[in-house]
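My current task is to audit a protein record that another person submitted. I have pasted the whole thing underneath without changing anything:
***
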Amino acid sequence: MKIIVADRTDPSGSSSIEQIRRWHRDLTGGPIIGLVPTMGALHEGHRSLLRQARQECDQVALTIFVNPTQFSPDEDLETYPRSLDQDLQVARQEGVDLVWVGDRDELYPAGFSTRIDVPMMAQQLCGISRPDFFAGVCLIVLKLFHIFEPERAYFGEKDYQQLKIIQQMTRDLDIPIDVRGCPLVRESDGLALSSRNLYLDDAARQQALTLSGTLFKARELWIQGLTHSAEVCQQALEQLDPAVELDYFEVIDREHLTPLEKIDPERGAVICMAALVDGVRLIDNIILETR
């Protein structure tokens, strides 16, 4: 496994971006490259991305970079979980070929001023409370796409809105990369895997479990035949712990993310939610399959 750390000087004097491009040029036989962008603090959800990439690609590249442009000033940029030694161990276990550990000064040097105008679907859901988030996500993903030039890139469906926005950006800009969504992974108790789960104490974790409980109830109502979104939301939200501060809970179209008053049995839907649990912002979703 090759490890490139951006803030360490290469013997040749090359930047880490130049090292990545040299690695790419040195590959022979036209291998399929799979890219898995992450912010580190890897968990089983990240492992699932790496495993799918390993199954489908000849070379797997993992990036670890806590991207400052997607954090607002009052968010947890400086305290975001970091566990590089453990992350590298995960990468070895999953057969990663290249790990790149990024540095903000190299990716955003003095004078950097380019911004991304994100799709309209970024102006809802998480985009309301985090207005700069998706522009920052699209900016770093676009940079990584240009640096690595992969054939495929892997993102988790837990960040459903993010996945759809990145797919839209890729189509709009004619980027020849297949952006693949991988199923959401949950812990044994149902909590959606997230690096921010590390912030939760035992009491907060019990509260957080009611997020997935609310979504499971919504799916049960859908299976039972309920199709009006307002009724599904009203009944499902009875499962949510009163101490949880709900940001949103919405039934939306699976592709365009537009709100749905009624769920079409032939199209299904997705329910996305975000909430603060003891000050920790968590997101979750559930797909209502066609029936």
